[in-house]
Amino acid sequence: MLDTLAPIAAEAGALLIARRQTIAVADGATGGLILAGLLTVPGATRFCRGGGVVYSLRGRDVLLGLPRDAYAGMESVTEAYAMLQAEAIRVRFGADWAVAESGAAGPDRHPRGAPIGRSCIAVAGPAGGVATTFESGIEDRIANMAAFAQAALRFVVDVLDAAPTPDGDERD
Predict the structure, then answer these.
(1) Per-residue model confidence as pLDDT tens digits over 22-53
(2) Cα(55)–Cα(1) distance, rounded to whole angstroms?
(3) What is the DSSP string of 21-48?
(4) Residues with Cβ < 8 Å from 7, sequence gap 6 or more?
(5) For position 9, which CATH number holds?
(6) Is residue 24 a part of any domain in this protein?
(7) Distance CA 89, CA 50 (A)
(8) Which among 64, 79, 99, 160 is least buried, having the fewest CB atoms inside 10 angstroms?
(9) Average pLDDT of 67-93?
(10) CB within 8 A of 128, min separation 6: which ones?
(11) Residue 146 lies in a domain
(12) Max CA distance (Å), the chain
C-alpha cells in the first residue's frame, strides 16, 4: 500500500521543501496512511510536522484541541468538517499547510449516513483552504482506505502546485 503512496508523497515533499514550508495531517478513515505516506519520503522531518488519526470524539478533542461547540451543526464526512479539522491541525502543529480527511471506508454505512466510498478532503494553507469530495465507487474497507489516502496526497500536490509561492510568484 505504501508503495502506491510514496511517489505522490515524494511530489508533495519536494514541493514543500522547495517552498520551505511544512505540513500537518489529520487522518480520518485513512487510519494514518496519509501521514505514513509522507513519512516514506527521506528527510520528511524537513517538511512534516506530524499529525494523528481522528477516529473518535475523544481522539478528535485531544488531537485538534477545539471546543465541542466548534462542531455545532456539522456532520462528519463533509467538506466543511474536513476543513475545520485541517485548519485546527495546522494551527495545533504550527504548520504552514495541513490536510484532513473524513470518510466512510465501509464495509457498513457510516453511522451518520455517509455512503461507503466517500471521502472529504481539505487542505488548509497560509491564505485559506480548499476542499473536495472523493467517491471511490467501491465498498472494500482496505481498498477505500488506500484510495482515500492516495486521493488526499494527490489533492495536496494539486493545491501546492496551484498556490502562489511564499515569495508571491505563481508556479508554472
Answers:
(1) 999 999 999 999 999 999 999 999 999 999 99
(2) 20
(3) --EEEEESTTTTHHHHHHHTSTTGGGTE
(4) none
(5) 3.90.950.20
(6) yes
(7) 9
(8) 79
(9) 96
(10) none
(11) yes
(12) 47
